[in-house]
Each structure stands twice: as structure tokens, then as C-alpha cells.
Design a protein that fits this description.
CATH topology of the largest domain: Spore Coat Polysaccharide Biosynthesis Protein SpsA, Chain A
Structural class: alpha/beta
CATH architecture of the largest domain: Alpha-Beta Complex
Largest sheet: 9 strands, mixed
Order of helices and strands: EHEHEHEEHEEHEHEHHHHHHH
Strand content: 15-25%
Number of domains: 2
Distance between the termini: 58 Å
Length: about 350
């Protein structure tokens, strides 16, 4: 029997609420040549029954049950160890795949053998399935790589990646932290090859009160800071981690926004933008940098503090104002003709 073209990996614990809809979206893909490996991480609700019934009706589904909970990343690594395909697609038990997702991502990796990872755009939905917003997420390798220095470039359930690194070593999640290891995986893959994200919105990414990003935000932010600084040290020029540390710690809410941190962050981005990049990429980076600076130093502050910080933005970084305007328009899905020349 030949190996499947794709191994789809899911880890789930007590996911009965959204699981049936997720399973239906995976099994209804236009690309049908895949195996679906699902680790039931010691669920105590109806998850096991739902999975067993699905496996009985579709031979592509394999259920692996943990008698004791391992956590999402060790559970995913168990599935990766069992996977038989050269490509892996991730999905979580509360998210949905659009019908062409696997076909589009597998075709991209087939056509781009130097790429190890591809993500995609998404629709953000709430617990009822209502669309909150849409995010096309077309990223080239250079763009994906640059964003990864500071944060996740694509949402984890959009990941489709090769099962092995170019040297043949198996791709696995690091298990040093119980959270944020999807970000570490993206950085590990970038250290060995290229990555990109498709513009089309091929998944529905569900945000609700039980998300790890909601229930364990502080722990997740702490892990993300360490991963980002480690990645900056490994992938950037000497001293990048030190230069960007005030920005990273403010972006992930470990450090309160202050004037000194903002000035240091602006200097770090200005230095970073002095490069041999093509003009279009340099402008793109400046828009993204302006947006992240605003997010780190303006978002979530009391109104009086926001006014003071906004004034500081104007005085300290006037060259980032037009790029920030363009970025705001981009995030609202508005086509902007605003000039963002350096």
C-alpha cells in the first residue's frame, strides 16, 4: 500500500463542542489522498466517542489515545512520529478547513521544493461561527522571515510543512514550553529552508474563551519573548536581540510602554531598514514596523496615556507616520495609494 500524499495532524482534549464540524471540514477536502492522525489527549467528555465513530466511517482516520494528558505539543509529536506522508498539515479541533486548503498548500510545496513551510490567510470566527474579520496573509519568504523575528507570521492551524528537514531529521515540536512551540517550530523550519504564506483565506480560525491565547496569555507571552530573542540572536546581525529587546518585551506586555523603550525601538527599526532590500520590500517592512510600534506602545493604554504616547510617536518617529497610515488601511482591507517612500 502506497504512503498517503499528506498526513493531517490534530491533538485534542475535551473538544466535543466544535470537533464534529472540524472533522467534517477536513474529511470534505478536494484533495482526498491523506491520512488523518488524531491524538485524543485523555479527554473526559464525548470526544472519544465522536472520534471512534468517525474512524469507523472513514478509513483515513486513525485515533491515538493517551491515557494521561501529555499536553498539545507532546501529543502532536506522537502523531508526527506515526505520520507516513512527506507533508504534514496541522489543524486544531475548533478550527475549520476550507475545501481547497490541502490541495492549494500541497501544490505550493510541490512547486517550491526549497520551501519547508506554507501558511495561508484566514477568517477569524467566534464561538458561534460568526465571522469577526478576515485576514489575507500573502507573504514571501523574505516577508515571512522578517515577521518571524518578532512574532508568528501565520496562525498555527494554517501550517503545512515537510515532515523532514533537508538533512533527513524529522520535524518535531520542541517541548521545553507547554505553550508557544508553534512559533518555535516556525523559527526552526526557517533555519533550514524557506517559508511563505498564501493570500487566500483557507481556514476559519476560531477565537473563544477557551483558547490558550486567552487562558494562558501571560505564559504564552513569556515563552514568545524568549523564542523571539533567541531567533533574533540566531538569524539577525550581531546585537539584534539586544537592540530589539525593549520592543519585544513591550509588544508582549511584559514591559510597560515608556519613552525610553519607544525611542530605542524606533532606532532599532531604523537600523534594520538600512539594507540592500528592494524598495518595495523596504517599504513593506516599514509599514509593518510602524504597525507593530503602534501596537506595542499605543494599544491598550488608558486614553490619557495614549494621547501622550501618540504625541511622542509624532515627535520621535515622524518618518513612520505615513507608513503607519498605510498599514492601518491595509488592516482594514482598504486599498491605499498613500506614499510610503523612505
Amino acid at each position: 500500500m502506497s504512503s498517503p500524499r499528506l498526513s493531517v495532524v490534530m491533538a485534542v482534549r475535551n473538544g466535543e463542542t466544535y470537533l464534529p464540524e472540524t472533522l467534517k471540514s477536513v474529511l470534505g477536502q478536494s484533495l482526498a489522498d491523506f491520512e488523518f492522525l488524531i491524538v485524543d489527549d485523555a479527554s473526559t467528555d464525548q470526544t472519544g466517542d465522536i472520534l471512534n465513530k468517525t474512524a469507523a466511517s472513514d478509513e483515513r482516520v486513525r485515533v491515538l489515545r493517551n491515557e494521561a494528558a501529555m499536553g498539545p505539543y507532546p501529543a502532536a509529536n506522537r502523531a508526527l512520529t506515526e505520520a507516513g506522508a512527506p507533508l504534514i498539515a496541522r489543524i486544531d479541533a475548533d478550527d475549520l478547513c476550507h475545501e481547497e486548503r490541502f490541495a492549494r498548500q500541497v501544490a505550493f510545496l510541490d512547486e517550491n521544493p526549497e520551501h519547508l513551510l506554507v501558511g495561508c490567510g484566514y477568517r477569524s470566527i467566534d464561538g458561534t461561527g460568526r465571522v469577526r474579520y478576515t485576514k489575507p496573509n500573502r507573504l514571501s519568504d523574505a516577508e515571512f522571515r522578517w515577521i518571524s523575528r518578532f512574532r508568528m507570521p501565520a496562525v498555527h492551524p494554517s501550517f503545512c510543512f515537510r515532515a523532514s528537514y533537508p538533512d533527513g531529521a524529522p520535524v518535531r515540536y520542541r517541548e521545553a514550553y507547554p505553550v508557544a512551540q508553534d512559533y518555535a517550530l516556525a523559527c526552526d523550519l526557517l533555519a533550514h529552508g524557506k517559508a511563505a504564506s498564501l493570500e487566500d483565506m483557507l481556514i476559519d480560525y476560531r477565537m473563544h474563551e477557551a483558547n490558550i491565547s486567552t487562558t494562558r496569555r501571560t505564559e504564552q507571552n513569556t515563552a514568545a519573548i524568549e523564542i523571539a530573542l533567541r531567533h533574533l540572536e540566531a538569524s539577525g546581525t550581531q546585537g539584534d536581540a539586544e537592540k530589539f529587546e525593549p520592543f519585544i518585551r513591550t509588544l508582549y506586555a511584559e514591559r510597560l510602554p515608556d519613552k525610553a523603550g519607544f525611542q530605542a525601538s524606533v532606532r532599532a527599526f531604523r537600523d534594520d531598514l538600512i539594507s540592500e532590500d528592494a524598495t518595495a520590500l523596504r517599504r513593506w517592512k516599514k509599514r509593518r514596523a510602524a504597525g507593530m510600534l503602534a501596537e506595542a506602545f499605543l494599544k491598550g493604554q488608558p486614553r490619557a496615556a495614549q494621547i501622550s504616547s501618540a504625541l511622542g510617536f509624532v515627535l520621535t518617529a515622524p518618518d513612520f507616520l505615513l507608513p503607519l497610515t498605510a498599514r492601518i488601511l491595509e488592516t482594514k482591507n482598504v486599498q491605499s495609494e498613500v506614499s510610503t517612500s523612505d
